[in-house]
Amino acid sequence: MSTSRRIAWSVPVVLVYLALAAGSEPGSQANCRLGAISVKADVSFRDGPDAGYLVTFPITNAGQDGLISLTVHLSTSEGTFTREQQLTLAAGASRDLSYAFHEPTINVTNVEARVSCRP
Prior knowledge:
Oligomer: single chain
CATH topology: Immunoglobulin-like
Structural class: alpha+beta
């Protein structure tokens, strides 16, 4: 194999590795703890009235200061919708978070929410 082929193969591998590592929390000593998740029908007034669902829950950092990644899923009869966020929480800090999902229509059924966090 020539040197140019080795370089050509190594560049995509490095780019894939960097893309995967970008979403992680390298060295974060945070330890996320989620409280009870609540889902309720909601109407917001962003560019006029817009019906949907609001997912709320408390989060606490039981570790040291650090970066926490959250993923919130709303599963319905019309599909699954996702929100993602990274936030930094101080050691022992808590927050009440809310995520709006306005994609489902008013006729949606089987509404369930799931939240995951790391680290």
